[in-house]
Amino acid sequence: LRKPQRSVSVRPDTQISFDGAKRNYFFPPVAVPLWRVAMVRIAAGLWFLAVALGAFGAHWLKPTLETHGLTDVWNKAVLYHFIHATALFVLALFGPTNRGAWWLLFAGIIIFGGSLYVMGVTNVRWLGAITPIGGVCFLAGWAWLVISPPKL
């Protein structure tokens, strides 16, 4: 039988064992899958983009959006973008079970928000016909979460 190794606390998160090895117990080493890191970073990037586009629309683009009557369209795109980026972040933390829903919500942000953003900048109204495709992606992503078996 091995004796349990004794250790001395230096800081609340670090211990030095009697063999001299320094170990960090506050953040234990964990192997994080690369796809999860990528999904979390994409979600964080989308959050950044939502905040930046919201500020861009509220300040620099405000006169253009008001002239075209598209201020509400821009605000709706930013709102849905931000909400679904938050959902992407949460789904990325739950693992591979909900990857399909993650991709559907991601596609929804790109198609729904992207079409509304481009429409707000260019005033090309036919892009409004593409927007419902992104809305269907949002609905399919949320339906995926309702229907898929829970494996948390």
Question: Could you give a short description of this structure?
Answer:
The chain is mainly alpha-helical. It contains five helices and three strands; from the N terminus they run βββααααα.
How does this structure look, described?
By secondary structure, the chain is mainly α. The protein has helices spanning 34-58, 62-68, 71-93, 99-122, 131-147; strands at residues 7-11, 14-17, 22-24. A 3-stranded antiparallel β-sheet has the order 1-2-3, with no helix packed on it. It is elongated, with a radius of gyration of 23 Å. Residues 7-11 have low confidence and may be disordered.
Record keyword descriptors for this entry.
single chain, 152 residues, mainly alpha, three-stranded antiparallel sheet, 63% helix
**How many DSSP E strands?**
3
Sheet with the most strands: spatial strand order: 1-2-3
Helix content: 55-70%
Low-confidence stretches: 7-11
Order of helices and strands: EEEHHHHH
Radius of gyration: 23 Å
**Main sheet specs:** 3 strands, antiparallel
Tell me, briefly, the overall form: elongated
Instruction: Supply the number of helical segments.
Output: 5
By helix and strand content, what is the structural category?
Answer: mainly alpha
Roughly what is the average pLDDT, rounded to an integer? 83
| C-alpha termini separation | 37 Å
Tell me what portion of residues adopts beta-strand conformation.
Answer: 5-15%
